[in-house]
Amino acid sequence: MTLEDKVALVTGASRGCGKAIAEKLGTLGAKLTVVGSSDGIFKTADELKNKGFDVLAVKADVSNETDVANLFKQTFDYFGQVDILVNNAGVGQFKLAEEHSLADFQKMFEVNVQGVFLCSTAVVPHMKERKEGTIITISSDVGRRTISNGSVYTATKYAIQGFSGSLAQELREFGVRVGTVNPGAIDTYFADSEPGLDFKEDWLKVTDIAEAVAYMASAPKHMVVDEIMLHPLSQDYPNV
Question: Is 189 left (phi over 0), alpha (psi -120 to 50) or beta?
Fold first, then answer.
């Protein structure tokens, strides 16, 4: 499994799953653009550089069209190409539907869906021209089932599944692969939580998500992994 001479762009990479994904892809030989919405992305980039990886850090809001255009311009200027896009940036709130404000709704759709749309469509012409590339979006198991207290977040993940599925069909003839990774409960910072809490002991680890992304990204060129669903063994969930 190698990604030598490949360039991977990972959003939401300041910490958690995104940071783990970037580190795993770097370990496999990929050059990295790491993207985050805070200055923390530069600290993460320094840590990755200290491990010997070739890294470009860009602070950007993936839901902002101007930021995304600048993100890809910087990446193309620095590396000249993007072989792997990992749409990892995401936000989530979990409460009753009527407890959500319109601002809650808009924020989740802007980051989780609009961000995936903007980043994916920014790189598609480049990948089509080169007739290769892989777009991987970190979705969720709730992109395939519903849960209570998660109506808006679940809706964003259903939207991601629909977008990714259609995009995969559009790009197949150009040799560009599109897939989603759909995890269950992960021990991370998600939804304003903290990793390492006792009740998360048996949950998925960020390295599990990174391994799934690496498998999808490094699959033989003739093969597309459409979707990876993974759960902690301890999680009770419907047969999806």
Answer: alpha
So which residues are the catalytic ones?
A: 153
109, two tokens: 């759709």
- Three-state secondary structure call for residue 177: strand
- The first and second tokens of residue 153, run together, are 């977040």
Q: Which structure tokens are listed for 213?
A: 């992304």
pLDDT of residue 194: 72
Tokens of 11: 């959003």
Instruction: Measure Cα distances from 235 to 75, 151, 203, 208, 232 in Å.
Output: 39, 20, 8, 15, 5
Cβ neighbours around 198 below 10 Å, total:
5
Q: Are 34 and 85 in contact (CB under 8 A)?
A: no
Of the candidates 122, 160, 124, the residue with the CA atom closest to the CA atom of residue 141: 160
Pairing of strands 7-10, 31-36: parallel
Considering the entire predicted model, what is its pTM? 0.94
List the one residue out of 127, 142, 25 whose CA is nearest residue 82.
Answer: 127
Count of other CB atoms within 10 angstroms of residue 231: 17
pLDDT 10s digits, 223-240: 999 999 999 988 887 765
**CA quadruple 95, 102, 189, 142: dihedral, nearest 10:** 60
Strand partners, 36: 59
Q: What are the backbone dihedrals phi and psi of residue 31, each rounded to the nearest 5 degrees, phi first? A: -80, 150
